Structure formats: C-alpha cells, structure tokens
C-alpha cells in the first residue's frame, strides 16, 4: 500500500526526518564533546531515507530496489569507514575551534542536513507516489546499465582509494608523506572522483522512467530536476569543502615549511587533480588543457611568487619543520561537507 505523507514527492517528510536525525546526533556531540558519531550520522542518514521512502512507496520495482540499495551500500560503507578511522585517531581536528561553540558547531550540522537531503533527491523522488503511479520500464535500459557501470567504478575507486590512503599513512607514520600509490598515481583525489560518478550513476538509473517516456507531466520534470543532487555534491567537492581547501593551502604549507616541496611539486605536475589519467601523458600535456578539460582551475594552483607568505623553508625553520600536510588525511568531501580526502 502506498503511503501518502505531507506531499507526493516525499520531499517534506524526508526533510523533517533528516533534520530530526541530525539534531539528535548534534545534541549528543555537543553535550558530550564527542566526535565519534559525526560522520556516522551523515552516512547512515542516507540509509534511513532510502529505507523509509522505499517502504512508503508500496511499489517495489527492480529499479527502485536497485537505486535504493545502491545509495544504502554507499552510505553504509562510507559511514563505516569514517567511524573506523575516527575511532583510531580519537578526535576530529576539524572541530577544535567549533566543539565548544553552539552556533558554529550547529552550522556544520545544518549544512550536513542540506547535503544529505539534496544528494538523496533522485532516490527520494523515484520512490515517491507521483512517480510510482506510472508504469515503469523493465530494469535494464541503456541508462540503467550506464548508471550501474558508473556506480560500480565509482564505488571501487572510492573504497579502494580510502583503504590505500589509510594503509599508506599507517605504514609511513608521517602525515607529510606523499601518497602517490595506487589510484593516487592517476589522480590526486580518486575518492572525490569516485563519489561524484557514484551519484551520477544513481541519477541515471532514477531518471530512466522519465527518459524512456513512461513518466509524464510534473513527475517527468521532477525526476529530471533531481540532477540537483549530483550537481550539488560536485560543486561542494570542487568549490566549497573539497579541492579549494586542500590544493592551494596544502601546496602553500609544504612550500613554506620546505616539507618535501620538490617531490610534491613534481607530483602536482604529473598527476591529474580529479579525472584519472596516465601520469606519463598528463605531465607532458599543455597547461591550457590541464586548466580546462582536466579541471585544474587557477583557484587550485599555488604560485610561490604570488601566494607564499615567506621564503621557502622560512616558516619551517621557525616552526621546527612541522608535519605540514594540511589535509591531515582528512577526507573533506561531500560525505562530510565542510568535513575532512
């Protein structure tokens, strides 16, 4: 039986559930000054929304089940990995200046609410009564297959690169070591790339009923409009909490502390910022192609003559050559919003 609640796209009920879920964990985190559940609350929220909307829909077509399972698997893997990592590290440095301040700390959780609700939109709308009232094409359309392929590639890249970086950091014991192994030899942010194509893969599956002409009227427009979810995640990773907070600041700190700067500079030259590409070819590629097609926009690039606060190694000498990597192995991606790749 289909459950109609608040609106027939499940937008209001999923928003209310997300707000309540995040505020519950915020209350625990702020009251106990406890960082362990922050990322767990974000990833598992996707699972909760997918389960509820699928259960409410009353129509369990193969496409709904696959799309819902895909976002649940992604959310569980992500939250599980991040929970494991925070249990190992003990605390989250991202909240050192927010943990005791109610409104700044709450601001993070509000942003997490927006992230979860927006990225869940394709699955939420696919499971809604306004879409399930129409006949559904059999699962296996070209878009379905393309979406599955993107999802599998993305999940492998995100999962393996998370494990590769964690293992590398654990073996090295030095946070400033340059991780250029595995997927990190082809792209500086393989987990970001994987996360982006995961969400576009899910969207491709969810939009199939509209693209194949089965869903009509406002539901047709609503399904296509859910592209806001993967686009929001992409913008977040590229221009808000991801690359902009890691690329130039990371290079700047390494340069000023003279912390393996020559090796890191070489790594930047030969490794694509986001889109995986053979390093031997990327290194010889014209700069104009790197700055356009391969998305290494000027806002990410560190130029010592323009962006350095002091000479190379100056601050390193003053600070005893600190560890230097500003990312602190933080993941800083959509899964954590203004959180920590």
What topology does this entry show?
Blueprint: H1 11-32, H2 38-57, H3 62-89, H4 102-119, H5 121-126, H6 129-132, H7 142-172, H8 190-211, H9 217-225, H10 228-240, H11 243-256, H12 261-270, H13 279-282, H14 287-291, H15 304-307, H16 314-319
Helix pairs in contact: 1-2, 1-4, 2-3, 2-4, 3-7, 3-8, 4-10, 7-8, 8-9, 8-10
Summarize the structure.
With 341 residues, this protein is mainly alpha-helical.
Would you write up a description of this structure?
With about 350 residues, the chain is mainly α. Helix content is about 65%, strand content about 0%. It is globular, with a radius of gyration of 21 Å. The two termini are about 40 Å apart.
């Amino acid at each position: 039986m289909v459950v109609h609640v608040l609106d027939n796209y499940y937008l209001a009920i999923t928003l209310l559930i997300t707000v309540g879920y995040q505020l519950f964990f915020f209350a625990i985190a702020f009251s106990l000054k406890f960082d362990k559940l922050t990322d767990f609350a974000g990833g598992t929220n996707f699972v909760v929304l997918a389960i509820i909307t699928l259960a409410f829909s009353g129509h369990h077509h193969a496409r709904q089940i696959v799309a819902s399972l895909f976002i649940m698997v992604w959310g569980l893997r992500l939250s599980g990995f991040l929970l494991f990592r925070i249990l190992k590290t003990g605390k989250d440095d991202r909240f050192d200046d927010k943990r005791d301040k109610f409104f700044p700390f709450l601001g993070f959780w509000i942003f997490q609410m927006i992230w979860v609700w927006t990225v869940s939109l394709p699955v939420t709308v696919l499971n809604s009564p306004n879409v399930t009232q129409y006949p559904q094409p059999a699962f296996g359309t070209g878009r379905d297959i393309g979406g599955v392929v993107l999802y599998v590639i993305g999940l492998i890249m995100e999962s393996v690169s998370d494990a590769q970086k964690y293992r590398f950091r654990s073996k090295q014991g030095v946070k400033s070591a340059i991780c250029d192994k595995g997927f990190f030899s082809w792209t500086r942010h393989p987990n970001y790339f994987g996360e982006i194509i995961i969400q576009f893969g899910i969207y491709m599956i969810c939009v199939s009923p509209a693209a194949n002409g089965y869903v009509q009227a406002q539901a047709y427009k609503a399904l296509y409009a859910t592209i806001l979810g993967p686009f929001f995640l992409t913008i977040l990773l590229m221009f808000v909490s991801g690359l902009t907070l890691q690329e130039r600041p990371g290079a700047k700190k390494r340069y000023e502390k003279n912390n393996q700067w020559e090796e890191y500079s070489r790594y930047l030259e030969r490794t694509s910022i986001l889109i995986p590409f053979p390093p031997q070819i990327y290194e010889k590629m014209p700069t104009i192609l790197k700055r356009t097609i391969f998305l290494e926009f000027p806002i990410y690039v560190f130029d010592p003559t323009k962006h350095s606060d002091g000479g190379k190694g100056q601050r390193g000498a003053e600070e005893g050559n600190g560890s230097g990597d500003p990312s602190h192995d933080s993941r800083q991606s959509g899964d954590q919003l203004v959180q920590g790749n």
